Amino acid sequence: MNLKTLQLRNRSTINAYLTLLAICIATFLQAQNNNIKNDSFWDTKNGEPIYSQGGGIFKFLDHETGEEKYYWYGVHYKQAEMYRADPSVTQARNNFVGVSCYTSTDLVNWKFEDNVLTQEEVFKDSERQWAWLGRMGVAYVKEADKYVLIIQYGARVLFATADSPLGPFKKSYVKSMEDWIGTTNTGDQTVFTDEDTGKSYLVYSYGKGRHKIYISEIGLKNDTITLLNYKQVFKGAGREGNCMFKYKGKYYLAASQLYGWDGSNAYYLVADDIFGPYLPENDMQVFSGAEDDYAHISQTGFFVTVRGSKQETAIFCGDRWADFAGNGLGYNQWCPLSFDGFVPYFNSINSWNLNEKTGEWEVAADNNWIKNPSFEADRKQIPSHKKPVQTRLLGWETTVINGTEISLDSLSPVLNHANTEEERKVVIGERSLNMSDSVNFIRKVHQTITSSPYVTFENDTYNLKAKIKNSDGFKYLKMYAKSGAKHLEVVVTDKNETWTTISIKNIEVTNNEVEVGFLADGKAGAYCLVDDVSLVKSN
């Protein structure tokens, strides 16, 4: 073999390696770019903060390129900026800045376009320069060749129109709903567009008590874009966060409980026709999988159905409100749904990857498998006499081995601690786990992680981590992980007056299951606080 042949062969080998490396890097970057990470504040692809709550995502054509894009509209509140800048403070108001618009081709990488409805436009004819604005959506009305933005405005509904999906939207008129449903306002609303027909609808509830849900088609009447009709499709327990989606030909009506700003269970009904009947009639069902952390500590906001080349995937897009704080980081919590026939299942996932082209999704390697890891699903003191009445922390089991039993009695130990502003500079949110009692006690608080019907909890090695703050007075205080025959633990021997991170590394999970938790044997008055628990793959 001559020198020239050897050089060519080496060059060919190097080129092959470089090509393989480029493919690997591209695949890695694509996976990274397609990652949806909950429990965090989101940014655009240019690194700008995303502020978009109580809105919806719609497909429209770009007027300049003719390309179909996703347009995400939501409300930008001043307090959302303030909480993001300082998560240690819960904000008291919700001042409207504008309706923001972001565009994307893959539902993950977003570009900020503009505030398409501004504060100046809304209040230009009003002496009052503040009112509640929220729960909105945008529809294209073919007959008028215009786009309409419909948003709650005080105790009525505001309609604004534009020639482009990018606005600017101009205030058209304000509508009272009293002649139709008996209240001037809607009790939460969203806009739903049926991709198969091109028609759009307003989904909303009765303004007082919110125990009835209605659907109205959006269209042109007497040269005005308005609601054409209304049909009551539900009557029963109070519901809010009303929205809907379509999956494989079925219409799903969804809503949350009346928990105000807090996260809650998510409910649904199913129908073959947009106007119903929705079944089971007047008996909304809880999304299985949403119970352990109140739909990933969120409230129903809207849904996106991805019709990919390989599968159809419906995405639950929840809002975190809670005065823009108090329930963990991030305002937008998106989780994929799975289906057993036409029965939906809520996959509460912290981190996952979406391929918008194929419709496929998978759990990401950095997913935190702990449910309610920062104890923010229970925003109230638990046990709680107030709605929701409960005696357990969501996602966690408390076993009293010795000491006072947990109950609604006033003598019961409190299971969660109200974090101070100073503590919230170190830990997330308003609440943390509290292990304490007025008598000598032995208590275990634990969670079992295993596969769900649609997501496999893989046999692999994991790291368990938590932040603790504790007094002295403990015979023993432990964090542990148990899988199969193996039991690992870290023993806390010292008093920790400030939040301290403890961890257990390289936990080998077998049989797709692990129990993690905290075990305390303390004297009367001793306490241990726990927050920000995570269980993530080691690699």
TrEMBL record:
Q: Name one GO biological process term.
A: carbohydrate metabolic process
Xref: SUPFAM superfamilies: Arabinanase/levansucrase/invertase
Query: What InterPro entries does the database record attribute to this sequence?
Result: Glyco_hydro_43, Glyco_hydro_beta-prop_sf
Q: What keywords are assigned to this protein?
A: Glycosidase, Hydrolase, Membrane, Transmembrane, Transmembrane helix
Keyword Acyltransferase recorded? no
Stored Pfam families: Glyco_hydro_43
Span-the-membrane segments of this chain are: 12-31
Output the Gene Ontology terms for molecular function: hydrolase activity, hydrolyzing O-glycosyl compounds
Say which domain of life the source belongs to. Bacteria
* Homology family: Belongs to the glycosyl hydrolase 43 family.
Protein name (record): Family 43 glycosylhydrolase
Identify the species of origin. Aestuariibaculum marinum
